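ARCHIVE CARD
CATEGORY: sequence design from structure
SOURCE FIELD: tokenized fold
FIELD CONTENT:
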């Protein structure tokens, strides 16, 4: 998508008040992109939208979105299409949920919430987007997954397994929509300086949300299929994926 094209279209951003979501919103708005900001906290979303309108002169509207309200997705999607006036250029999924594995071990509801927010929710929403874009033969879909989905690790395998499922879903969606000229980008960030990772032990090489947002924009322009951000995570995860299991299960990862 070129900057000129961005000025006449809308992007739906789910998880607009997350750390990465805010950075993506600013990057897109700086390039003239109008934004539908979907979030659960409307007060915070309104502040984000007002800042984008004042700072960048774009249109920015907030839409209530609860990732766990799965039965409301059809109505939510119709509202998005109506607000975009038939000119929805793309959908970006940034929402996610992660708690310590030790907490999840003791609470089956947290297991379900982890799966539903990180996999079920984006799969259902993006299926609606895919059906729409496939008919019009245009558009883009960006899913923010995680390097945690590259291999199950004892420290976060609930979250990692949900992200692995999401990455596999995006790969299949990319193959399905290729003939319709719809671009599907899988984003696999490493550790990012957001509320989700704040205070988390064992983090290293932490990137800023702004760095990640710029990488996502660049990957979209190149019509890249998979993005590891920052770039060195591609090599880190290549090594982790190829550690023999008899060694890996003894490692504290």
């Amino acid at each position: 998508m070129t900057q000129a094209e961005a000025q006449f279209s809308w992007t739906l951003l789910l998880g607009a008040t997350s750390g990465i979501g805010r950075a993506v919103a600013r990057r897109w708005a700086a390039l003239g992109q109008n934004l539908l900001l979907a979030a659960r906290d409307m007060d915070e979303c309104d502040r984000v939208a007002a800042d984008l309108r004042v700072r960048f002169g774009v249109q920015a509207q907030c839409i209530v979105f609860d990732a766990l309200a799965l039965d409301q997705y059809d109505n939510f999607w119709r509202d998005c299409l109506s607000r975009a006036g038939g000119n929805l250029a793309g959908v970006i999924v940034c929402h996610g949920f992660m708690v310590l594995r030790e907490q999840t071990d003791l609470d089956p509801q947290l297991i379900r919430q982890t799966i539903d927010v990180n996999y079920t929710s984006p799969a259902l929403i993006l299926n609606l987007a895919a059906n729409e874009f496939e008919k019009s033969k245009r558009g883009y879909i960006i899913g923010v997954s995680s390097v945690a989905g590259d291999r199950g690790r004892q420290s976060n395998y609930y979250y990692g397994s949900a992200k692995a499922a999401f990455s596999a879903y995006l790969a299949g969606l990319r193959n399905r929509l290729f003939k319709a000229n719809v671009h599907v980008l899988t984003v696999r960030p490493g550790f990012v300086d957001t509320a989700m990772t704040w205070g988390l032990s064992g983090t290293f090489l932490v990137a800023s949300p702004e760095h990640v947002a710029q990488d996502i924009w660049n990957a979209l322009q190149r019509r890249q299929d998979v993005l590891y951000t920052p770039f060195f995570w591609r090599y880190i995860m290549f090594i982790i994926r190829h550690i023999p299991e008899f060694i890996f299960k003894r490692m504290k990862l």
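CARD ANNOTATION: The chain is about 50% helix and 15% strand. The chain has a mean pLDDT of 92.
SHELF: design records, drawer C
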